[in-house]
Write a structure and sequence with these properties.
Pnp Oxidase, Chain A, single chain, 18% helix
Length: 182
């Protein structure tokens, strides 16, 4: 059995899973925008495997991810950094009372860098953030050998971030003597 692009389904499923495990960053396309996100691959055997993400509050901003029914996930190659695969996934919110809440948040805490407090991260996410899983539907939009050749550059989203300003003045800087050339 093959998918719409002629790739065997087992190969496509294996490629999606391998990229999900190896990479920590992907891009989500939904509601007309693209969002770079960090994720962990969640596969505990009880639920379908997929990406686990946390957004909102002190975490990455993904406006409207809970309401997005399906998203496109663009994944890159770990070796070259280039775009390798684009697949479609369904968004499944994971609520604090859900049986998947504990295992998904444990995986997210383990994969999250620079958390101020590992013990309270899941509680903070329960109050201020949303946790979702993106489960592959089996539909692949782009794959090796059939990647879009058009320009994919996008303008950055508006943000409140600014540059840090002028560098501080340094007094009594050490003089570097250059050899004279003439």
């Amino acid at each position: 059995m093959s998918d719409a692009q002629g790739q065997p389904e087992a190969l496509t499923t294996a490629l999606v899973a391998e990229l999900g495990k190896k990479t920590g960053v992907c891009w989500l396309r939904y509601d007309g925008g693209e969002h770079a996100v960090w994720h962990v691959w969640f596969d505990d055997g009880t639920a379908p495997a997929g990406l686990a993400l946390v957004s909102g509050g002190p975490e990455q901003p993904l406006p409207g991810i809970d309401a997005a029914g399906t998203v496109e996930v663009v994944m890159r190659s770990k070796e070259s950094g280039g775009r390798l695969l684009c697949w479609v996934g369904t968004v499944e919110p994971v609520a604090p009372g859900d049986p998947l809440w504990a295992p998904v948040t444990e995986a997210l805490v383990a994969g999250r860098l620079n958390l101020p407090d590992l013990g309270t991260a899941a509680n903070t996410w329960a109050v201020h953030s949303s946790v979702v899983r993106v489960v592959p539907t089996g539909e692949v939009r782009e794959h090796p050998g059939a990647l879009d050749d058009g320009p994919l550059a996008a303008t950055p989203r508006p943000t409140a971030a600014t540059t840090r300003g002028a560098l501080p003045r340094v007094l009594h800087r050490r003089v570097r003597r250059r050899p004279r050339l003439s």
